[in-house]
Design brief:
heterodimer; A: mainly alpha; 4 helices; 72% helix; B: mainly alpha; two-stranded antiparallel sheet; 2% strand
Chain lengths: 117, 655
């Protein structure tokens, strides 16, 4: 498995998510699409973290120690952060959708246009 | 040796200032129930300042009236520009210091009686201290900028004091008028300072500083300043003096300044404020001397003022206004003296005039006090038996002002007349004649006032006067308290003997003849001319006699004279329509209707138009852009995505 495969997978997922977020009328579907985009980013981050070594550490094998290991883990830690933030975001997002439904009896994002002009 | 003297000179200025700060910062906010302490603090501070001024005066006398040199203290230096504060102590400063602090001291003592029970007692003394401090700061200044700062502070404090009873609309208006009219002249002063500054290169080429007064004197004496330049500087300075000293055509504020408390008028007219203009011209006399045009202007303006103001004094019914026009007229005398080249004579007259004019104003305050608060002479009369001391001192003041031998006013007036007569050229002759006319009128209006106030029947005082503002009991006129009579007595003595300092005839013991003018102020003085002295005395006596015939023995009916010269009478009593000219023609017709209207149009159409154009432009652009904001969040997302892709694509393409 090479890095490209992971990146292509991430790109495909991101494109699907973006398409969904921009085209779905239902707010729940939009939230799901956004979740898809988060995961695309996660895949990319983890893959890069696994395959790419920072240029500053190359050519000095002896120094790849504790410090280097931590540096290499950055992408993975990042994806965990993203998962956490996404969980919080989805909680907020669903709360907004419920509030929208209660006040306007709709879950279509195309109907929430109070801020136009 | 000279160190402690310089400290003393600074203290003369700082003590009244400290008194002002003390009253304003402590007594008024925290101890207002002890307001009478304010009067004592002021008197104490000014008394010490007066003592120090006397010490300085003696030192300057020992120095032969020449300048005691103290180097200035650097205040700020910006590049080439160097501004230093200092004290310029010469004969002129020394005598002004004595007059200012001495007269101010007596006025403060008088005020404790006159202002008793006024609700603004502490505020009054705070302002008075500030006024004195400003005037002292003005006369000791060694730098033009320093002088100008105190010049403006004098204007400010006179504004505060003229409008002291600010709840009276007339007082507020008079204060405003004084401030604005003098400001017109100050503009000329400011231009003169700028002009000096822009000629700085000429001065610094000779190692002098263009803003230092002693350096300006040196530059003039060395002749490095062209007469044309000197003329503009002198005329600018004179414009300031015209405003401050109430010279024609900016004299209109001074009679209105009578709205302030009487001791304030007394101080303004004797030692501070109006004396500042005369002092300014005398201080920069070398500049005036360098330009004949400037000198002639000063002389002519002074002569016109002397006569014009005296004519208005002839017909006023308000005793304070008679005195006010008298002051304007006498200031014209001083200017005239300066203009014909006799600064010594001018300052000598300022010196003697300070005493008798201060005395006369105190007398006016005293009779007003007695008659319940009116100043209208038509409702006075017959006060002589009730107010013996006031009558005697007022009589001495009037005689001195009229120039009767051997009182102080005689000597100083004679000095000026003799010098103007002895000068060559038509200007000297013209102003001499103007001065002679003024002598006659001065004697007439002073004795008209004296007879109307003190002789004949008592006509009811404030109760009879429909315009009197403050009503005290007026049915039994009474003598004023000792705190008011005391200073008047001192001034009466001075109004008699002050002229001996420059007696032109004989040496008086340690005082050689012409001492003040020749040996102290180092100015030219005229020799005593018995013809002029006798002539002016006869003229003054004729004026007194005419007043006697018209107002006391009634052999000439004042009414018939009035109706015979009806147009003149109306012209004089309407003050030559100067107020109408300034207020209706200049202010309303010219300024409001032409200048202000043009500016209003420019403001509305050009300034506002530009603002409206910007406003319309951004409003319309915004309206167009707002159409793109559809409220469809997904549309925005689409735009962002396409934009990011476009940027990325461009980046990859043109990398």
């Amino acid at each position: 498995m090479s890095l490209e495969n992971f990146l292509i997978l991430g790109a495909i997922l991101f494109a699907i998510g973006l398409y969904g977020a921009l085209s779905k009328r239902n707010a729940i579907a939009v939230l799901m699409s956004i979740e898809l985009m988060f995961n695309a980013v996660n895949i990319t981050a983890v893959a890069l973290s696994r395959y790419v070594v920072p240029a500053s550490l190359l050519g000095d094998a002896a120094s790849i120690t504790d410090q280097a290991a931590r540096t290499l883990l950055t992408g993975q830690i990042f994806s965990i952060f993203i998962i956490t933030v996404a969980a919080a975001e989805i909680a907020l997002g669903v709360a907004i959708v419920i509030a929208l439904y209660r006040s306007r009896e709709t879950v279509f994002v195309t109907d929430a246009t109070q801020l136009k002009n | 040796m000279s160190d402690w003297l310089e400290i003393a000179a600074w203290l003369v200025f700082l003590l009244p200032l400290a008194s002002f700060v003390l009253i304003v910062a402590f007594i008024r906010p925290f101890f207002i129930q002890y307001a009478d302490v304010a009067g004592r603090i002021t008197i104490g501070a000014i008394a010490i300042a007066f003592a120090l001024a006397l010490v300085l005066f003696v030192e300057v006398v020992n120095n032969g009236g020449r300048q005691i040199g103290w180097t200035g203290h650097e205040w700020l230096a910006v590049g080439e520009f160097d501004l230093s504060l200092g004290i310029f102590m010469d004969g002129l400063t020394a005598i002004m210091l004595v007059v200012v602090t001495g007269v101010s001291l007596l006025v403060q003592v008088y005020s404790t009686g006159y202002m008793k029970d006024d609700p603004g007692y502490a505020r009054y003394f705070a302002y008075m201290s500030f006024f004195t401090a400003s005037m002292v700061g003005l006369v000791v200044a060694s730098n033009v900028i320093q002088l100008f700062v105190f010049w403006e502070l004098v204007g400010l404090s006179s504004y505060l004091l003229i409008g002291f009873w600010y709840h009276k609309p007339s007082a507020a208006a008079a204060a405003k008028k004084a401030f604005l009219v003098t400001r017109l002249g100050d503009f000329g002063f400011l231009l003169a300072i700028f002009y000096l500054y822009f000629n700085g290169a000429t001065f610094s080429a000779a190692g002098l500083n263009a803003l230092d007064i002693p350096d300006i004197h040196d530059a003039m004496n060395m002749g490095i300043i062209a007469p044309g330049v000197a003329m503009w500087i002198a005329l600018g300075l004179f414009a300031g003096a015209v405003g401050k000293s109430g010279q024609f055509p900016l004299h209109t504020w001074l009679p209105d300044a009578m709205e302030g408390p009487t001791p304030v008028s007394s101080l303004i007219h004797a030692a501070t404020m109006v004396a500042a203009g005369v002092f300014l011209v005398a201080r920069f006399f070398p500049v005036f001397e360098a330009s004949e045009i400037a000198l002639n202007t000063v002389a002519i303006i002074g002569g016109i003022t002397a006569v014009l103001a005296a004519t208005m004094g002839l017909v006023m019914n308000d005793v304070k206004r008679v005195l006010a026009y008298s002051t304007v007229s006498q200031l014209g005398y001083m200017m005239l003296a300066l203009g014909v080249g006799a600064p010594g004579g001018g300052i000598f007259h300022l010196f003697t005039h300070a005493f008798f004019k201060c005395l006369l104003f105190m007398g006016a305050g005293s009779v007003s006090h007695a008659t319940g608060g009116t100043f209208d002479m038509r409702y006075m009369g017959g006060l002589r038996p009730h107010m013996r001391w006031t009558y005697i001192t007022f009589l001495i003041g009037s005689l001195s002002l009229a120039g009767i031998f051997p009182l102080a006013g005689f000597w100083s007036k004679d000095e000026i007349l003799a010098f103007a007569f002895g000068g060559d050229g038509t200007v000297s002759l013209v102003v001499f004649l103007l001065a002679v006319i003024a002598v006659f009128m001065t004697a007439f209006y002073m004795f008209r006032a004296l007879f109307m106030v003190f002789e004949g029947e008592y006509k009811g005082g404030a109760d009879a006067d429909p315009d009197a503002e403050s009503h005290g009991p007026s049915d039994h006129p009474h003598e004023s308290p000792h705190s008011m009579i005391g200073p008047m007595g001192v001034l009466a003595v001075l109004a008699v003997v002050a002229g001996l300092l420059a007696s032109p005839i004989i040496d008086l013991g340690p005082i050689p003849k012409h001492w003040l003018v020749h040996d102290f102020l180092h100015s030219d003085g005229a020799d005593f001319n018995i013809l002029i002295a006798a002539g002016s005395t006869v003229l003054a006596l004729a004026g007194i006699l005419l007043a006697y015939l018209m107002y006391l023995s009634k052999q000439i009916s004042a009414e018939r004279v009035g109706s015979a010269f009806r147009p003149l009478y109306i012209l004089f009593s309407r003050k030559f329509y100067f107020d109408e000219l300034y207020e209706e023609v200049v202010t309303v017709r010219l300024f409001y209707r032409v200048v202000a209207r043009a500016l209003d149009w420019a403001d509305r159409s050009i300034v506002d138009g530009a603002v409206r154009l910007v406003d319309q432009f951004s409003r319309n652009v915004g309206r167009g852009i707002a159409q793109a904001q559809t409220g469809q969040v997904q549309g925005y997302g689409m735009a962002v995505s396409v934009g990011v892709l476009a940027i990325l694509g461009a980046y990859l393409l043109f990398k």
